[in-house]
From TrEMBL:
This is UPF0179 protein MTTB_06600. Pfam families: UPF0179 (PF03684). InterPro entries: UPF0179 (IPR005369). It comes from the Archaea. It comes from Methanothermobacter tenebrarum. Belongs to the UPF0179 family.
Length: 145
């Protein structure tokens, strides 16, 4: 998918989370290319940076570059019984109110409950759950909203 990003940020491999449009974007002539393809709360990875530049009042130096992006794969902890590489799952965060240093993997940014995901890689067993859940760390590819 094609979008626009600030000239200084336009680097292949860069990941970013899209938090929604700025007020100045509402009447911009590039809106349909720049922000309309992006989904709020998702993490994207830049696959390719094009040479084309446009002016933009909200970015540093007043310039944006055309880039090709894809939704980034996301590391998460899921129920070990579902952690088979290549399988498609509906992501569901666990019922948990514990504060621990792995919480960001149980409730990863860019991933929402009921998202359809493909398990790209099983990264192994995770044995440090305070609730006693049997979890595996996986790399997920979002395949639908």
């Amino acid at each position: 998918m094609i979008t626009l990003i600030g000239e200084k940020l336009a680097k292949k491999g860069l990941t970013f989370i899209y938090h929604g449009p700025a007020k100045a974007c509402e009447d911009c002539r590039y809106k349909s290319v720049c922000i309309d393809p992006l989904e709020t709360g998702r993490i994207y990875k830049i696959k390719e940076v094009k040479e084309t530049e446009h002016t933009c009042p909200i970015h540093e130096n007043g310039k944006v570059k055309v880039v090709e992006v894809e939704k980034a794969n996301i590391e998460a902890l899921i129920d070990a019984k579902m952690a088979f590489e290549g399988s498609v799952i509906l992501f569901e965060a666990p019922e948990c109110d514990e504060e621990c240093n792995m919480r960001s993997l149980c409730f990863p940014e860019g991933l929402k409950s009921s998202n359809k995901c493909k398990i790209k890689k099983n990264l192994g067993r995770f044995d440090k759950c305070k609730k006693g859940y049997k979890l595996n760390k996986v790399l997920l590819e979002i395949i639908s909203r």
